[in-house]
Amino acid sequence: MGGDIRIGRIAGIDIKLHWSLLVVFALIAWSLATGGTSGTATGGTAADWTAAVIATALFFGALLAHELGHALLAQRKGLEVEGITLWVFGGVSTLKGEAHTAKDEFRIAVIGPLVSLAAAAVFEAAAVAMSALGTPQDAIAVAQWLAVMNVILAVFNLLPAFPLDGGRVFRAWLWQRRGDRAAATRSAAAVGRTFGFVLIGLGALLFLLGAPLNGVWLVVLGWFLFGAARAEESHVLLTAALRNIRVHHVMSANPVVLPATMSVQDYVAHALDSRFTAFPVVEATGRVDGLVTLRRVKAAMARGEGDVTLAQIAIPLDQVPTLAPYDTATSLLEQLQGAADGRALVFDHGALVGIVTPTDLQRMLDLALLRGGDRASGR
């Protein structure tokens, strides 16, 4: 997601913060400093602010531990973990691919809430120990607040609202029972969307009853759950529909290439006579050097660089997704995520044989979804 701030790596996993988390951190710290972890503070003293900042930092540390539980177990089950992003609604572990079995899905989903419950137990034990040792009340209150918040985090995530952890547990149960992940996803996503609508309704009711802040928060959370359930369902169903589609089914074969020495101005004249807007750029030897697109040409023209060569503005080949004709369509989608200009080149034993453009990709997605719909209807 946009606006991510990378803060480090743990076990080879990128850890990022979304900018929204900084806002939430400030709001939680302010709420604790002025209201106290036990709800008794009145003025927001320096001691209150210190306790509030420590409590907030420890809470987000526990949230990171929750997500690391998912990510590390996913790695053990053979899934590639791209990273973890902490943001306004908690945390997201970005996995490449899906769990291989329903049991793996269940274990990966349930480990996060179990980590949160373990953190709650640790903080509660710390509160009891500090109380016995006569530690200042502010420190005890912080530990108790963290214990409660981690229990809330675990319980909330265990709600059967896909794609929350509880929703994934529910999907794993349906998957194990029916033997069909796509059908299980449809059912779990329907429950998730319903839960989202319920939260939106409750939020609207709270707003009308005079609790606008809580109401708006529930509406936003409900809308997020509704959208996330729908997006996750679409992704899983699309992956199932793409299972037997290969890159050579998608690509535009034998793409037109342009010499690396051609000027930007000459590209404009050439493109007027072509239906294409993206071209592989080749050196005099015929070796592909990169990819030039209309977007990059427009940027060069806007800078007054009509006389520079295509080689100077092209996307270098090592930054262009490259595939083989018999690679899967799902691997194509994975490589195109975040790719510059949304194009991929296809090589067969080192020879350029095709290009995949957004138009090719959209045609593939539309046909794959129709194909998936036909299968679901039994046609």
Can you tag this structure with a few keywords?
379 residues; alpha/beta; CBS-domain; 2 domains; four-stranded mixed beta sheet; 13 helices; 12 strands; disordered C terminus; zinc; CBS domain; UCP006404_Pept_M50_CBS; CBS_dom_sf
Structure description:
With 379 residues, the protein is of the alpha/beta class. It folds into 2 domains: 4-241, no CATH class; 247-376, CBS-domain. The protein is built from 13 helices and 12 strands. The protein has helices at residues 19-35, 46-76, 102-132, 137-157, 165-178, 181-208, 212-241, 247-250, 264-272, 294-302, 310-313, 329-336, 358-376, and strands spanning 4-10, 13-18, 80-87, 90-96, 252-253, 258-259, 278-282, 288-293, 315-316, 322-323, 344-348, 351-356. The strands form 3 sheets. A 4-stranded mixed beta sheet has the order 1-2-3-4. A 4-stranded mixed beta sheet has the order 5-12-11-10. Strands 6-7-8-9 form a 4-stranded mixed beta sheet. Helix 6 (181-208) runs antiparallel to helix 7. The two termini are 38 Å apart. Mean pLDDT is 84; it is low at 373-379. One of its GO terms (biological process) is proteolysis. The chain crosses the membrane at residues 21-43, 49-69, 108-133, 139-162, 183-209. One of its GO terms (cellular component) is plasma membrane.
